[in-house]
Amino acid sequence: MGDEQGEIGVAVEKLWEEVRELSLGTSSYQVECLEYPPSPLRFLRDFVLPNKPCIISNAIHHWPALSKWSGDNSSCYLSNALSHTLVSVHLTPNGQADALAFLPTGNRLCFASAHVERMPFPQALDLISSCSSKPFVAYAQQQNDCFRSEYSTITDDVEPHIPWATQALDCLPEAVNLWIGNHLSQTSFHKDHYENLYAVISGEKHFLLLPPTDVHRMYIRHYPIARYSFSQDREEFELELESPMRYVPWCSVNPYPPPASMDSEMKSFPLYFNGPSPFQCTVKAGDILYLPSMWFHHVTQSPDDNGRTIAINYWYDMQFDIKFAYFNFLQSINLKSVGYPTCLKNLGESSCERIDDANAPRD
Ligand SMILES: O=C(O)CCC(=O)C(=O)O
Hints:
Elements: H1 3-23, E1 32-34, H2 40-48, E2 54-56, H3 65-68, H4 74-81, E3 86-92, E4 96-97, E5 99-102, E6 109-113, E7 115-120, H5 121-129, E8 137-140, H6 146-150, H7 163-169, E9 175-181, E10 186-190, E11 194-202, E12 204-210, E13 221-231, E14 236-241, E15 247-250, H8 262-268, H9 270-274, E16 279-284, E17 288-291, E18 296-302, E19 309-317, H10 322-332, H11 335-338, H12 342-345, H13 349-358
Parallel strand pairs: 1-2, 4-10, 6-13
Antiparallel strand pairs: 2-17, 3-7, 3-8, 5-6, 9-19, 10-18, 11-17, 11-19, 12-16, 12-18, 13-14, 13-15
The protein binds 2-oxoglutaric acid.
Protein name: JmjC domain-containing protein
Pfam families: Cupin_8 (PF13621)
Domain JmjC: 138-331
């Protein structure tokens, strides 16, 4: 490999640093917190245009949902208001929907999507809260504008959009989604082509965030799509590949591997585990996270006293502008062929060999 090629890996590593220090204005991996909602102009200028996340407090304190959806009477209120409503619930064996899992036959990873069941809301709420006695984890969610389509009897408890974001972005949200999970519900690393205003109403959400410039650190590969199906009789899940087979590009990194596989995960994904730490933030009830388009995010949650976390997100269309083009260009660079960043070189040859796996042909 020529010097010129080796320099690209080093330049990519420099890009990771520069984005943190120049664009995000921080080297401390802290997400900026605003005590009050910004003006639309400030939001646009200081956060949307530089593609920079922030947490905004005191932005939703006037929503009736904050008091009605949490506290002692919340189960009663929600179950009455939605007594006849069918909602979509994602069932998985471990709380990890839309995440990588091993197929039962062979040692092959696939992208496993949840068993989705439509059920009356009171039953969904019960399954979410009583997870320890069930052979599955239930997560009420559906990323198809589910709040406006499935939860219409409680839409007045929140605002239909976030006014300062709507003004800054000059459009109404494309989708509004509701998420009701418990301490086991997780969302694996991925990115979305939306500007995301993520409001937590009860409990807490914990985000790991990586800027789009860190794309190589996510080891995106194409995985065959599989789906869980849950048999009520046998109380068991099956995981089956779609037929005909389809593939989806997905992030390979699990940031919290079980202790037994920590070493092998660190060897397989050294750019993630040895590169700069992700931004870590907790979004508390009453706060909004602005999660800029194309940022990689991994989400876990801590429940409220009722055993659940409730959040609602507003997806606004992103601009497919020069940043998007730069991102695609960066992603197209194969680090294996142009040289590794120094954080890897320092680890020696064996780590580099694992990167070859990451770039193996997509089957
Ligand atoms: O809350 C979650 O579990 C995931 C949220 C998410 O991925 C999103 O808002 O794009």
